[in-house]
Amino acid sequence: MSARSSAVTRERFMQRHVIVSQERKKEGRKTRSKETIMKLNEKSVAHYATCNSPPDKTGFLFKKGERNTAYHRRWFILKGNMLFYFEERESREPIGVIVLEGCTVELCESESEEFAFAVKFDCVKARVYKMAAENQAAMESWVKALSRASFDYMRLVVKELERQLEEVQEEARSSQAKNKPKKHQPQVQGATFSLQNAAITGPSQEGVSSRENGVSWSKPTSVPNGVSEGCVWEGDFCGRGDGVKPPPVPPRRKTNGGSPESPVSPGTGCFSKLHEWYGKEVAELRIEWMQSK
Amino acid sequence: MRFNEKELVFLSRQPPERAAELGMRGPKKGDVVKRRVVKLIVNFLFYFRTDEDEPIGALLLEQCRVEREDDQVFSIVFLDEAERKYLFECDSQEQCVEWIDAIVKASYEFMRKNLIYYRTEIHRLTGTDPLEQYGISDETRFQVFLVLQSASIHHCHLLCFL
C-alpha cells in the first residue's frame, strides 16, 4: 500500500471512530457498536510477520477481494496461527492478517479459479476467505498447513509429547532402579507414515516447497566426529506399509466443543483417538473430492 | 493493516485461560490506569471496559517481554517498540506472578520451543521420532532451526530434522 493510500485509510478510520464514539455517547450505549474497530497492537503484529523467526509457510496465493470479487495475487506468510498477506513479495508491511483460530479449511468449487480452498470461521456472519493456489500440490500443502495452524492444535501436540516424555523418563528411572542395562532400541510406536504422506502432498514435499518460497530449512548433514549419536536424524523413513495412519488434519469444527456426531470431542485428552478421528474424516473428504472432479 | 476483527471478537468470548479485573495503563505518555477486564485466550490478551461485553482491544502476545515491575505490577513490552510499556496492576503478589507465568506460556513461539525440546529428548531417549506415528514429522512448524553455536566442529551439536 502506498504511503498516500495508507494515510487516507488512517484518516478514514479516525473519522469513523470519532463519529461512532459520538453516536455512542449520545445514545448512552453500553455495548460497543458493531462498526467500531477493536484496537490491536498492529505494529507489533506486523513486526511478528517480518521478524527473523522462520515462517511456517510462504508463497503466492490468489485471494478473493472483500468487496471486489476478483482474485488478487498476494504474497502470504504463515507464522504460528497468523496468516499475513502482502501486496508484493518485497513489501515491507502486510496489507492484512487472518487470525487462524476457530476456523476450518475446506476445498471448494469455484467457477473462475482452479485449486480453490476456503478458510471458514465458526462465528455468526463470519467472513469466508476464499483463496486459490497455483497448482494441486500447492493447494494441498496450504490446506494442510492452514488446518494445523491453530494455537489449540499446537497445544495438543505439545501436551501429547510432554506426556510421552514423562512416560519415557519414568521408564528410564524404573529400569535404572532395577539395575538393568537399558538398550536404546528404536521403538516403532506405530506404523510409519511416509507412503501415505507422499500420497497427500504429491511430488513436492514440504521441504522442497518451503525452499522454493524462500524459506530455508536445514537438512541433516554429516555428523562430525565426537558428536553423540542420536542427535542427527537419518532423513529417510521407509514406510512399513501395514496399518498406516493418515496424517491428522483438524476437521470441520462446527462448535467450540466439537460436532455432535463425533465420537470424541476435539477437547479430548486422548491424542491417538483424536488423530484416528481426524484421519478418517480427511480420508472421506479426499474420496468426496476425487469423486466430484 | 486489515484483520478479521469479527472473528477476533468471537474469539474473545471463548473460555479464557485466565481472566481478571486489573488496572491497566496504556503505553502512551499521558495514559492513566483504568480498570479493565483482562482475558487471556490463546496468544491474545483481550481487554474490556468493566461493563461491556465486547473488547476494546487485543494484544497479540508474540515477540514480547513480560516483566515484574513491582510487587503487584507487571508490564508487557513488544520487542519492536521496547520503550512502550503496557502496565497491569494486580490485587496481590500471587496474582501478579500467576499472570506473568500465564502470559509467558501463552505465546505460540514458546509452545513451539517446548515441542522441539520434547521431540528431541524423546528421540534421544528412544531413537524414535514421536511425531512419526501421527504422520506430522515433516510439518514445517515442528522443525528445528539449526543454530551453530561455534565454528569448532568438536563443540557443535547438530539437531536437524528434514
From TrEMBL, chain A:
CDD domains: PH_Ses. Residues 54-151 form the PH domain. It is found in: Early endosome; Recycling endosome; Golgi apparatus, trans-Golgi network; Cytoplasmic vesicle, Clathrin-coated vesicle. Residues 151-178 form a coiled coil. Keywords: Coiled coil, Cytoplasmic vesicle, Endosome, Golgi apparatus, Phosphoprotein. Gene3D superfamilies: Pleckstrin-homology domain (PH domain)/Phosphotyrosine-binding domain (PTB). InterPro entries: Boi1/Boi2-like, PH-like_dom_sf, PH_domain. GO terms for biological process: endosome organization; receptor recycling; retrograde transport, endosome to Golgi. The keyword Coiled coil applies. Residues 199-222, 238-270 are annotated as: Disordered. GO terms for cellular component: clathrin-coated vesicle; cytosol; early endosome; recycling endosome; trans-Golgi network. It comes from the Eukaryota. Plays a role in endocytic trafficking. Required for receptor recycling from endosomes, both to the trans-Golgi network and the plasma membrane. Belongs to the sesquipedalian family. This is Sesquipedalian.
UniProtKB/TrEMBL annotation, chain B:
Residues 15-108 form the PH domain. Pfam families: PH (PF00169). GO terms for cellular component: cytosol; early endosome; recycling endosome; trans-Golgi network. PROSITE patterns: PH_DOMAIN. InterPro entries: Boi1/Boi2-like, PH-like_dom_sf, PH_domain. It comes from the Eukaryota. Gene3D superfamilies: Pleckstrin-homology domain (PH domain)/Phosphotyrosine-binding domain (PTB) (2.30.29.30). One of its GO terms (biological process) is endosome organization. PANTHER family: PLECKSTRIN HOMOLOGY DOMAIN-CONTAINING FAMILY J MEMBER 1, SESQUIPEDALIAN. This is Pleckstrin homology domain-containing family J member 1. It comes from Cyprinus carpio carpio.
